[in-house]
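thread: overnight batch results

M.L. [08:02]
morning all. the overnight job finished for the chain we discussed friday. pasting input first so we're all looking at the same thing
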Amino acid sequence: MSECEDVPKPCQVADRLETAQFRVQDLEFKQGESMDLSGVHVPLVTPFDSNGVVDTKSIAHIAEVMIANGISGIVAAGTTGEAYALNFEERQTVIDTIIKQVHGRVPVLAGVGGMSTKEAIKQAQLALELKCDGLMVAAPAYVLPTPTELANHVTVVVAAAKLPTVLYDYPARTGVPFDQETLDLLADNSHVIGIKEASGDLERIPMLNQRYAGRIEIVCGADADSPSFFNAGATSWIGGMANALPKAHFGILDPATRAQAHAAVLPLLEHIESGRYIAKTKALMGLLGVPCSSTRGPLAELEPAGIETLRTLVAQAGEWVPSLV
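M.L. [08:03]
and the structure it wrote out:
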């Protein structure tokens, strides 16, 4: 595995987190400040080498490619980054590599998941230790907490880092939504600034706009349905396909080009959303000049026939899907 200079050993990071869980005031950078969520933020893919090891050189390269393509921010160790398949030491390596490569040019959010509050706290404190700009916190998978339990979970996790936090509403993956009862308990938390809405329920958009205006910003978490968010006033998008389609994402975000860009890439968006999202996104990046096709089990790389389908859809999309490099 490639290594970056001055990266603390994972065991050292873990030890510090265990012994100084809430000493956030001792760190050199400011906490509790809000951040600008506008624009397109990409949950960066995690490349692996031929031996299945996290490839830090490729992570740094992809981060640089994203910045060169105008991306507004990065989510490190998110769902598209296969964070669920990373151990704690690998998570530390991924986040630290991104932070060092970005070097403050765009904000970096760290994904926080896990299946227990203790695990999520540890992940949040890792993000703090590595000087991330914020968190993206999902519900604990598989656990099925009640709305009050979920709100308490988030409150404790956020308190452990005191960083601006985007909630990640993805009940198809976690089993529970950030429903109105939960959000009512979190809306006045000064660190909770937004919600990535990936539930697929477009009826939630007006509810979120009306009930939480000025408290929780709506962040688009859809692909094919993304115009519904922006037509309703959203200005932020955290989208996994932005790894491969940054130009199209910015085109859809812009009212002047929204209809044209969306129509051009809609078949591609729908195809990737239909299944094997990460494998297809990584394969598409390869077609566009950034090889990173390896995935972690149980996910498998996209087969040649699938790559040819992507190639056809790229050709149909025309100018909205240029090379990444």
